[in-house]
Amino acid sequence: MAKPATQRPTLPSVGRLGLVEPPARTDLNRLGWNTDDHVELLWSLSRAPDADIALRTMVRLADALGQDWDELNLALVKDRALRGRLLGVLGSSTALGDHLVAQPRSWHLLAGRVSLPSAGELRRIFAELAEKTSDANDLRVLYRDRLLVLAALDLAPTVENETVLPFPTVGEHLADLADAALGAALIVATRTVCKDGAPPPRLAVIAMGKCGARELNYVSDVDVIFVAERADAISTRVAGEMMRFGADAFFEVDAALRPEGKRGQLVRTLESHVAYYERWAKTWEFQALLKARPAVGDVELGEQYMAALKPMVWAAREREDFVSEVQKMRRRVEELVPADVRAREIKLGTGGLRDVEFAVQLLQLVHGRNDESLQVASTVDALAALGTGGYVGRDDAANLTASYEFLRLLEHRLQLQRLKRTHMLPEPDDEEAMRWLARAAHMRPDGQHDTLGVLREELKRQSRRVSRLHAKLFYQPLLESVEGGGVGFSPSMSPEAAERQLAALGYEGPQSALTHLAALTGSSGRRGRVQQVLLPTLLDWLSDSPDPDAGLLAYRRISDELAEQRWYLASLRDEGAVAKRLMHVLGTSAFVPELLMRAPEVIRQYADGPAGPKLLDVEPDGLARALIASAGRYDEPLRAIAAARTLRRRELARVASADLLGMLEVTEVCTALTSVWVAVLQAALDVVMRANMPAGGPPARIAVIGMGRLGGGELSYGSDADVMFVCESVGGAEESAAVRWSVTIAEQVRALLGTPSADPPLEVDTNLRPEGRSGPLVRTLASYEAYYARFAQTWEVQALLRAHRVAGDEDLGHRFLLMADKTRYPPGGVSADAVQEIRRVKARIDAERLPRGADPNTHTKLGRGGLADVEWTVQLLQLRHGHQIPSLHSTSTLDALNAIGAAELIAEGDIDLLRQAWLTATRARNALVLVKGKPTDQLPGPGRQLNAVAVAAGWDSGDGSEFLDNYLRVTRRAKSVVLRIFGG
Description:
By secondary structure, this protein is mainly α. The chain folds into six domains: about 25-160, no CATH class; about 165-315, 2-Layer Sandwich (Beta Polymerase, domain 2); about 320-475, Four Helix Bundle (Hemerythrin (Met), subunit A), CATH 1.20.120; about 505-615, no CATH class; about 620-825, Beta Polymerase, domain 2 (2-Layer Sandwich), CATH 3.30.460; about 830-980, Nucleotidyltransferases  domain 2 (Four Helix Bundle (Hemerythrin (Met), subunit A)), CATH 1.20.120. It is built from 41 helices and twelve strands. Strands 1, 2, 3, 4 and 5 form a five-stranded mixed sheet that branches. Strands 8, 9, 10, 11 and 12 form a five-stranded mixed sheet that branches. The longest helix has about 35 residues, at about 450-485. Residues about 1-5 and about 485-490 have low confidence and may be disordered.
């Protein structure tokens, strides 16, 4: 029986090939690709990442070849490997396509059996050409030819089913190619500079960065450092000429990583390099040396350089500033990319290449001195060594390597397109560009998604994995080292290595930290398992906080306290915002953790609700009403005030948490703190009056007048409540009896609020009353009026500027303020003698009240340009002009400042300086309490605590030195205004 004839494939339509009609049909006809012999060639064309660009470039190549086109056309039909290589290049890289059009005979490099030359062979090829010519174009053609061959082998699998080049092979060959190019540039430079018979200098070129690690990109600056036997004019000229020629022929040669950067000498002797790194180098410079490698030039000198400097690299973790420098580098990396393009940046964005590289390099620096297997330059090799050594889980190392190679592959494809240095993905809605990238990266439909969908899903998966592993990388081995095999793990890291790693991540007490980790993960059952899952991420967030040691201890204490509360760990596990915010708060503040221990329900408010963070869902006025109502349910004063304290504690924790997380302005913090203090005073007054109520009803009505910051609505976390009590007899009661009863009420209110408690204290201060401590605790309204009319001293008049009713009888309080207006805003204003007295008292306070040892430049209350300076200046202007300008009748410093500006009493620029100083000092004062956990006004010196104050005060970079510089600058300018206005 005869076999059926084999059916020859028929020509596919242009539409089936994915080409654009009608230009594609015309181009195919011009190439002669319209016969049945070209069917396989056309299907290969359709698999190119961008078939239309490949076709158009092929037409240009045919025109450039002229009569030689037939040779290439026939070869494409017969040579499947050539098809894959050439069409892969033309569909992926317009720049290499242009190179082929300019050098059309170079297609022969892609035909037949093609392999990558060795490093030695590349050096020989480039050196031979450099010996013959100094023409940069000749060497550029050679470099592009070799780049073409590598790219063709790398891209061929996108068109034909050929073996994919391993990622390390591509990076290594690009580095070898860069070495060969640098060698050629050095030959040309030496010949140019030493053409008059001068002996060539002994010069070694040290490759740095990705070239040094032999993991180079297709398009990258090549970082170098020059070492010379003599750093003279000849060696410097040779180095400079080499960089210039290299840029003309190959790529940018960058020497910015040299000592002192671009400001430093281009060429140094070995001794000069050693001296610099021993005395002046920063931690990042030792990190850069991880990838140093002699590339070209004097071999012996290059090896001497490595032998001298490598030991310094592995000792860098012993430097005093290692941790702070590492933290700065991490922040700097994150800040380099604008937020609106961070998701598209595969190098510097979140979950990008730099996350992997930074993490790996840090672990190398931490452990490399004790483990020589980690002393490798390549990121992939270092990850493998870290996995083998137990510093990273083996699976984590493998997964992170795969993610890293995937992102590097995308980076290579993006750069190949136009041979431009880029790390930016196309816009998400640019589907054509994204589809091209997917095809160029060897992606194919997977049954659920088309090529574009596969790329998008893979990008999400890899970015999430890098972000997750970036945290886990540091901490999972630490957890395993303290678990001791009890929950399915065997120790993979020695205690000494674990302590080194924790110390490098910012923990000053690594032994204690390991104890806390063991306790947290040692719980049996669900709690221990959830902690094992949570801790890698939590510890990573904690390490970014100013005090991770204190934060970890606080986390352990809270976790122990809430051990039986299932919602606690569930919230941390399921609400990422809750966990991240909690770690920031715990690692910054000593004030809030103590509150959270007794008001843990506030942690739930760290979550986001439909309208934003739940921490902002509470209205201060509504909370005040609830506090008063809660206390009102109890007749027994201690129980009533305990209920009030509970709500106050919760509100303090909420406000302080929102403050630390940057959710509240400083004025909103002051308002909320004042509101809760006022509510507590009202609740205490109500319960004490009920407990002391005579059978016939109260003999007096009582009002509480807020003074100082309480009256101004500007309380801070550490403020006492300055008050005065005023009474008035009612119901025909004798005035003396009314006063006695009112004094009893006032004394019991003070005592009740002053009862010792674990909460921040509730101190009621009555020293601003007439005659101070020696005066009666309570007076009638008539007594106050008579005293102020006859005996008021200047300081008492000034104190009344902040008087405001805060609790008790509203009508009595209102009448007290009307009476006070006669004293604080008298017709004709204050006398010149009173102004002089105010200035004298202020001078005495400046000289005597500053605590012993305090720095007057950084004391937030009494220091230069601090709160007292601004407030006394504002109050002097109120006293002098308040009788004429009603808008100055405000107890708020900022409102009074605004009124002063509106009335044009002083220049608007001076108003701004005083306002900024008051806000800056108030933020700093609040931050001091949040960080230290107790009232204080003195900013600390440079160090961890100052950094914490900077973070708590909302300073963006978290750098304490920058924060302090700004504080000094702002207060210095305000002081100049104070001296002019207050000092007359």
